[in-house]
Amino acid sequence: MKKILIVEGNPIEENKQFTIAGIQTHTESLKHSLSYFTDKLLIDVANPSSDKNIEDIVKNLESYEGLIWGGSSLNIYNATPEIKKQIEFMRECQKKIKKILAICWGMQVAVTAAGGVVKKCDKGSHKGIAMNIEINENGLKHPLYKNKKRKFNTPAFNFDEVVKMPDNCTLLASNSINKVQSLNFKVGECDVWGLQYHPEITYQKMINLIIFRRDRLLKKEAFSDENEIDNHIRLIEMENKKLDKNSRMTELKNWLDYLELK
Q1: Which of 202, 160, 199 minimizes the C-alpha distance to 180?
Q2: Euclidean distance between CA atoms 6 and 66, whole angstroms
Q3: Model-level pTM greater than 0.70?
Q4: Residue 244's domain is classified under what CATH number?
Q5: Cβ neighbours of 142 (radius 10 Å)
Q6: N or C: more exposed end of the chain, with fewer CB within 10 A?
Q7: For residue 148, what are the domain limits?
């Protein structure tokens, strides 16, 4: 058995709204996806933005053999107190946990904590899907992408991107929207695998998120009108028919293999 920590990036209020809408929180999605591959994990959950006992959790970080930090609706450059708490907690994790899988928001927090920079993406956004991600030569050699097709589409939801990677960081994959779709860097003995997309989340959940955030997305002009939203949902539904579960979650399986589960 391996003991890991899952970090919830969304504020409690956002997760309450998820639950009311019948949508899994990102932590619930992670747990569900992990259970597909193994029952040999002891999982704790932390929310550094809201947990009152976060200092006690920090004291026990060395007891975890791995950490997965998932998505969030936050934007890291807003630098709210809740976001600052997450960045500081990530710094502590990078000191005390040797293997981190940082997904979407998690990658942005990990990069920021290690001295990189995240900004709003100039070339657009991913609303439920990222198209034509291509693994580069370094990525093809990395265990993150063992048995992964070199070019692929995948669930994703982000408006921001890494514009400056931490020192001694290796870029692994890109697409036309985000140059940094995945990366790998070390902080001391901590090995961070970062993904800008979501192998642990289904396309159906992404569709549900678009419906859940419909008004918000129109307000921020992510879509021009209701018709564009409906057409985009149909595109994702078509992609959903093409993608099998194992292919979507290859990166998650490879990170679990890196944990050396017995």
Answers
A1: 160
A2: 9
A3: yes
A4: 3.40.50.880
A5: 20
A6: C
A7: 2-258
